[in-house]
Amino acid sequence: MDKTAPTPAQAVADIPSAATLAVGGFGLCGIPSTLIAALLEQGATGLSVVSNNCGVDDWGLGLLLNAGRIAKMTSSYVGENKEFARQYLAGELEVELLPQGTLAESLRAGGLGIPAYYTPAGVGTSVAEGKETRVFDGREYLLEQAITADFALVRAAKGDRHGNLLFHASARNFNPVAAMAGRVTVAEVEELVEPGELDPDEIHLPGVFVQRVVVVPLDQRDKRIEKRTVTAAGTENGAI
């Protein structure tokens, strides 16, 4: 089955307002920036987004946030986005914070059809409020529900027409589990190859989890640095 979509715009054209999205990436690493930009142009609003963070003010999910398109964020880290903090403090944005491992495992569980699971993360904190707990072998655990989404947006280094994906280095962060959790998963790929060109041992996510594949146009393959840190001249070896 050929799952390729002609353009990013067509790949996200049917995402409705008030949809739930699982979005891959960590900070600005491995984010589906092309699909996010296409969704911004598409105009869907009132979105509930599940992602490790919300990008920065002028890139990634921060673009949708600045445009007032996101109603709720479920994240584990929000520290680099001032507009996120402003909207939350002003009561304009609903926020659910989860421990990072819990967020990843909840997405994975959703993709595998596991409705809930027990974890020790968050016991005794505000994360545990209103949640069932049980004791196993003398240790207390929280019952966390799986997360599924109407759509998932992810980015991969390579993909084939069947939806098999390969992620580059640390871009293999939240992308696989976000893809698994989406009922309809859209993957943007930097390189599209024919079925059979990817060695089975290279495939990080099988195509059964992916419904659409779109190639990132060459002029849209820019990759931002979230925090650039440089060494001052003359201090390379500890000199002042």
TrEMBL record:
Keywords annotated in UniProt: Transferase
UniProt-listed Enzyme Commission number(s): 2.8.3.5
InterPro entries associated with the record: 3-oxoacid_CoA-transf_A (IPR012792), CoA_trans_fam_I (IPR004165), NagB/RpiA_transferase-like (IPR037171)
GO molecular function terms noted in the UniProt entry: succinyl-CoA:3-oxo-acid CoA-transferase activity
Gene3D superfamilies given in the database record: Glutaconate Coenzyme A-transferase
Keyword Transferase applies: yes
Domain of life from the UniProt record: Bacteria
Enzyme class, UniProt record, top EC level: transferase
Protein name stated in the entry: 3-oxoacid CoA-transferase, A subunit
